[in-house]
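Input for the complex:
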Amino acid sequence: MAEIVAAIGVPHTPAFPALVAREGPECETARLYRTVREHLEAVQPDVLVIYDSDHVNTFFFDNWPTFAVGSTARIEGPNDENSGLPHAVVPGDEALADQIYAGGIDAGFDFSLTQKFTIDHSIMVPLHFVTPRLNVPIVPVFINGVAPPLPAAKRCFALGGAVRSAIESWPRNMRVAIVASGSFSLDVGGVLTAPGQRAGVPDRAWVERVVTRLGAGKIDQLLEETTTDQLRRAGNVAGEILNWIALLGMLDGRKPAFIEPQLSHGHAYGIWRWD
Amino acid sequence: MSAYTINEICYRCAHDPPFREAMKTDPSGALAGLDLSDEERGAVLAGEVGKLYRMGANTYLLSHLLRYELVGMTLPVYQERLFAAR
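Predicted:
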């Protein structure tokens, strides 16, 4: 049977690859990603299921999904320029993607399906740091975190449970790690970005509250607090927290083995162990 | 009124290099033939990002105009206009 062996949450700040190249392996960002990468390497996943919010690069409003599964064997990215990462091909696990798609539909989550797509920095930046050889196949599960109306936090949490059931009911022997990509408070070129900045963290108190709730395993409380108004106050891409919330829906109340914020960036790094 | 075409213009500035180049050198020509009202066309050409935001444009997409410094966008101009529409 397929089994989940780890879950991690990471940011995808487009400037980080260049920052770490400049500042070296001992800078804070390099250290935090390394902590996550080392755990991932220790559990030897065969595939990564990645909760991600497309920044209107993969999809457009001609056909905008609230939830979508990406199922193809060959995934190119990044399809946007802001990370400076080279164009690359990441293997996709079509069979597991189809299992998650069908399992979600069966459980009442009416996923969109894409079998031809590219991915943006929000997947390529995390992969650059946690599987730098891009050799571990991925299954992207897209959650709308940037174009309101966003799906409700409780719905995303329940979706995580459905994805977990789909994975664990799959008869193939396979070790699956879960990745959530994104920030808790971030505004990029929007009305809440500080003057003179191109991006910023409009609601640092929210970031601190989220990290406290995650650390204490107070997930019910976090779901209550993750309201439409709260997400709006936290910035134009703050809906990325929904990726983390889908991940939380797979955890059976586990507390993180590691959770470390970078408050000035509005995000955190987290590890949940299965052993 | 739908912001679809305004968002599409911003999207193409990031994803369609020939279109982006045209938006730099001949913005009126780049927009010719696109499904825009006179008001929308004028707002895009004048870089009136506050107005475009009010019309329903997505701000992450609007920021592509700033990233590529199109229709007169610099950070101070972009923010002054966008913040005036808050």
